[in-house]
Amino acid sequence: MAERTAIIGSRVGLHARPAAIFAEAAAELPVEVTIAALQDSGCKRDLKPPVSNNDRAI
């Protein structure tokens, strides 16, 4: 399986509005999209629906 990694440049992470835009774009893709914190904090979310608004901000 192909895998891509992108790093969010902001030290404070991905917040609500950009996370919602990202999740909407990911929902349109025919592939699995997962977002996780760079450090192993256990913070990992699958961005396919259903996703609550609270789960979109990491």
Automatic annotation (TrEMBL):
Q: Which InterPro entries match?
A: HPr-like (IPR000032), HPr-like_sf (IPR035895), PTS_HPr_His_P_site (IPR001020)
Under what name is this protein listed? Answer: Phosphocarrier protein HPr
Q: Which domain of life does the protein's organism represent?
A: Bacteria
Q: Which Pfam families match?
A: PTS-HPr
Per its database record, what is this protein's job? General (non sugar-specific) component of the phosphoenolpyruvate-dependent sugar phosphotransferase system (sugar PTS). This major carbohydrate active-transport system catalyzes the phosphorylation of incoming sugar substrates concomitantly with their translocation across the cell membrane. The phosphoryl group from phosphoenolpyruvate (PEP) is transferred to the phosphoryl carrier protein HPr by enzyme I. Phospho-HPr then transfers it to the PTS EIIA domain.
Every HPr domain range = 1-58
